[in-house]
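Section 5.1 Outputs to date
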Amino acid sequence: MAELPLFLQEQTEDEIMQRMLERVPADIDKSEGSFIWDSQAPVAFMLADAAVWGQQVLQRGFASTTYGEYLDLRVAEHGLTRRAAVAAIGKVMFSGTPGTIVPTGTVVATPADEITDEASIEYKTLEAVNLGPDGTGVVPIKALVAGRSGNVPASVINVMSTSISGITAVINPNETSGGTDIESDELLLERFYAQVRNQGTSGNKAQYMKWAGEVAGVGGVQVIPLWKGPGTVGIYLLDTDKRAANAEIVAAAQKHIDPTMDGQGEGVAPAGPVVTVMGVQEVPIEISVQLTLAAGSTMEEVRGYIEDGVRAYLKQLAFTDTLVRYTRVAAVLLDLPSIVDYTNLTVNGKDNANIEISSGQVAVLGTVNVYE
């Protein structure tokens, strides 16, 4: 490998100054404080800075050492663009006088928290709804601001940003999902490496994975050739949280790859195969365990630690491993200083047994039951 030119190598101001002084004839005074020394010192300082700048420019040219807009430019050479943020979607239920109409675009929100200075999160209704005889009506919603902040738990969207006569309450029966931030450098680099190291061509599996990965909000892709027999391809999608991709992400991917689903090649997929894009089936992993806690620890605190650890483990498994290993769940417990010992650990009701995850499925955390 050729050595880098000197101006791109690590070097200090003193080293540069010494090289400059060595080129001054010996019969000329070049001691510190002399005219020669004083005139060359600023130059050495600027050249040292220029060497740092030169190294930075070099690093920006390689995907592994660049970032931000420079990474965008690098991956664009291979046809990749950073995926945009995606707004969360869900549903809310309005309550009030039967027959009341809630128009499309009605804005609802979570309450602001003055203690934590957390702003409310607003959503708009995507359809109009007419409250039924029981005085309720359910309608889909979408966050006004794209990003993960729109993913909220059930029962927290309870504010009418604009009051409507006849409406007394609003609530989201289930969590909202699918909100993702703009693609991070880490994920974009991962996608870049996947493309350049595993070239997709002629409609092979790698190319279907590339096409699906181009859609905003997609965090994992599983391709099933011959899904329903010859001429069919099934594609299962995860979101960036390694959960089932919601309907909006699935629809966007279907439109991008094979919008007509008739093999006519109207999307990026070649003519011939009929491509079906789907969200995965989530398989809840239920955990129950009897714990002996360290002094000062509480069950609620430890439950949170277990949930975080198991959730991180399950994300690693998504589309990479077909087994949720009992021993790995146990290892999460053993790694927690708050837990002195445990007994009666069961995973989905089974003792010392692995849970198998099939194609088109992803393991997600269910309930964690801890007791003394």
